[in-house]
Structures are given as C-alpha cells and as structure tokens.
Amino acid sequence: MSKNLTTRSEDYSKWYNELVVKADLAENSGVRGCMVIKPYGYAIWEKMQGELDRKFKETGHQNAYFPLFVPKSMFEAEEKNAEGFAKECAIVTHYRLKNDPDKPGKLMVDPNAKLEEELIVRPTSEAIIWSTYKGWVQSYRDLPLLINQWANVVRWEMRTRLFLRTAEFLWQEGHTAHATREEAVEESEKMMNVYADFAEDFMAIPVVKGIKTESERFAGAEETYCIEALMQDGKALQAGTSHFLGQNFAKAFDVKFANAEGKQEYVWGTSWGVSTRLMGALVMTHSDDKGLVLPPNLAPIQVVIVPIYKTDEQLEQIAAEVTILSEQLKKLGVSVKFDNRTTQKPGFKFAEWELKGVPVRIAIGPKDLENGTFEIARRDTATKEVVSKDGIASYVSDLLEQIQKDLFNTALEYRNSHITKVDSFEEFKTVLNDKGGFVSAHWDGTAATEERIQELTKATIRCIPLDAIEEAGTCVFTGNPSTKRVLFAKAY
After folding, report:
1. β-strands 114-121, 373-378 pairing
2. What is the reported pLDDT for 3?
C-alpha cells in the first residue's frame, strides 16, 4: 500500500499531503479550504483532546460553549484583535434564501432578509466570551474565572493544507479572568507549560518554550508565550500559544470587579489554544517513507495482531490464542486489534498497518503455536524479534513505553543537532538554506530588522527562548548591540 507514497527526500510537501490522505487521517471536502477528518484521524484527535482536557481540569478549568456568531460591533470592540483578524473573517449578511424566478430549481439570497447587523463567524472567541464575562464578574469572589471551550473556528485562508492550515479547524481555547496582573501572567505561563508537557510526554515532540516578538504577538495581547517544534524538513511549527491579554479586553468590554476594599478594578485576562494543527506536527515529526509512525500514547490502535494461516482450523486455533493475549493486554491498558479479515492476505495487512503507524505488530502462525512464541515487529525501527508467549503482555506493555521514549529521543537528537549558532548574516543564510532548522542569532530588537530579515530570507523569529542567557553580542544583520540570541527559522 505504501509503495506509491512519494519519499520525503523527493518532495516533502507532497509526501505529507499524500500520507495524510492515504493513512485515512483526512481528505479535502466539497467546501474550499475545509477538510473532512476521517475516523482514524479523529480517533487520534480524540486522544489528544482527552489528555488535554484532563490536564485542563486538573489545573482548575471548566468547559463551556459560546456562540459561533459574533455581532460585528462586538467584534470591533477590541481594535487590535479586530484588525488582526479582519482579513480572515467570514461574514453572515442574510438569513434566508428564496427561489430564483429566473433560474427554476435554483435559490438566491432573499434581499428582504438582510440582517440588521452583520455577524462574524468566529475566527477566535475573545469578543463573545468577554462580552459574556461582563455579566459573570462583579466581585473579587467571582475570580479567577477559568473557562475552556472545545470548538471550531473559521479563518478564511487563501492557501490551505490539510491540518496545517484550513479555513475551518477544530481547537480548544481557554479564556480566563483574574484579579491581579501577577495571577494572569502566572496562568499564561502555566498553560504554556501544560502544552509543552503534553507535546513532549504524549506526542513525543520536543519543544522550545519562549515568547513571541511584538510583531509576531497575538493581536490584542501584551505577551504571547509559545512552544515551537521542528519538523523533519528543518521547518519550525508553532505548536501552541498562551497569551497574557493584560486588561485590554476587560477595558474593551467593561469587565470590572469590586476588590476587597470595594473599589472597582478591571480584571486581567489570558487566552490560550491548540488546534488540529497538532495532527500535522505529529505526522511530520515522526513519520517515514513507509507511512505514519505514531507514538503509543496517541495511537488509536497500539497493537495489531495478524494471523498467518492456511486452513480455517489453523485460524480458529490462532484466534483462541489471540483472545487470551488480547484480554491480558487490555487489562494493562493496551488497545489491541485482531485483524482476522479473510478478504486480505497477511502481506497486505502488514503494509496497511505500517502505513497507519500502529506501534507494534504481532504475527502468529501455526509454528508459533507449536513453539509457544510470537513474532513482534516495531513500527518505529522496523525491527522484528521472536518472543516467548510467557509474560508477553508485560513485555509488549514495556515495549510500548520504550517506543514512546525512543521516538522522543530521536526527535530531540534531530532538533538539538539543528539549532545552529551564527554570528554573521552570510553564515545565517548559508545555514538556513543548506541545513535548515533553528538559527540562533543576535537581533537588535527592532521590528524593522525582523521584517527585513524575513523579506530577504523568508525566516521569522520563532521565539525568544525563555532559557536564553544574557550574552553581549551584535545583531546578525545590523551590527547593533544585542543582549540575547533568538531563534529564527522558516516555518509552517
């Protein structure tokens, strides 16, 4: 099945697009720029959702749901946010269709059904949520307000790619209100760390934690914290952001509270989110020319068992053994599929599950039954071994943990070997074009320099790393003084 997959070295972009479709993760829909997430892809997203939701609730957040539509005047209330998203907005102007008198069987917009006020289809929910918070917050006793919603949003992207950039996508967005600046900053940092832990522990993707430059900051935020990952082609991908909003939205929507002394104050806000873009990160970090490679923590099927047989009697004997093994694995929390389809041969099944990235494959034939052994294959390393059936469930459970660690370490090794310090612009361009990855360079702190470097190289400042040390130097482009290195990269 995977033989028709374009190789990464041949065309990385084409390899990615083909893999997402052939592995049954998603496909383009009949709506321009929108995708259909197929059951196998959605099963991975559900596992992401489940773990993130658990983390959110552990940190005191509750889920709610807010409207898809935002009145235009409400959307405009916080100017920077409105300006930042204006070019991506889809707008509802009418509420009814009618039969077209000139084209039988066709419909037209009813000109008499124009909305009094146009509605924005949410590109993000700050406006509708903060207008709601005005009625929820009166006193310091109502704070902090820690709310998350799982939703879809629409951003009318002109150039789209499955999962990475689509006109409609799924995400979660947290929106919190606090009594003090310090609490809100702490919340912003905490959620960045939640995202980082999830990316590393569950997705096996190492990330750099940092803050965005002013020009890369979320529209309407005072500070944007981010986690940045590196894909196998040397391009960066923003995997999650957490924004300290200051009092910008509280002032725009007049969200005040009475403090302990009875004095009125504006609340301090945050917002933070990750989206189905993480699916793209997962594919591009670990997968190979044979298909998906999924970390066990996120694989919908962690173990697939394929029977090798010639007669129905042999299949029955194997099935009996598989029933016992499946129960043992399920008790250890391992998800198992017995692929006993009689319509496909073992070779086809091997290729299919390899393409779909199942971490462990077990093959059982008549000889295995005689010898009391099973053949175990790892998807990540493509290695096989014959293992005694005694204690095999524990062996497989341990193997899955090892695969999870190995995938992270492989990605970490690649990422670390692709962070390159440079001190001249010529070196900067050479590394960017020939090696790729993160380029660690001094920057003079001005938006003009940042913009000029992007014009010349297509590289952006991905973040100012939180662990960046004070280091006297000169800007790689202007030669002006600098105190810290930042990470540049070409990015998705």
Report:
1. unpaired
2. 59
**Beta-sheet strands, E only, within 72-198:** 90-94, 97-99, 107-109, 114-121, 145-154, 168-178
Locate all alpha helices (DSSP H) within 242-293, ordered by sequence. Answer: 248-252, 277-286
- The identity of residue 352, as a single letter, is E
Residues 6+ apart with CB under 8 A from 281: 199, 203, 205, 229, 231, 237, 239
- Residue 333: how many CB atoms within 10 A of its CB? 9
In angstroms, the CA 212 to CA 492 distance is 16
Residues listed for the chain: 492
State which residues of the chain have pLDDT below 50: 1-2
Whether 253 contacts 130, CB under 8 Å: yes
- 3-class secondary-structure state, position 223: strand
Decide if 229 contacts 408 (C-beta within 8 A). no
Give the separation between CA 34 and CA 156, rounded to whole angstroms: 10
CA distances from 372 to 197, 365, 367, 392, 426 (A): 40, 10, 8, 11, 63
| Amino acid 57: pLDDT | 98
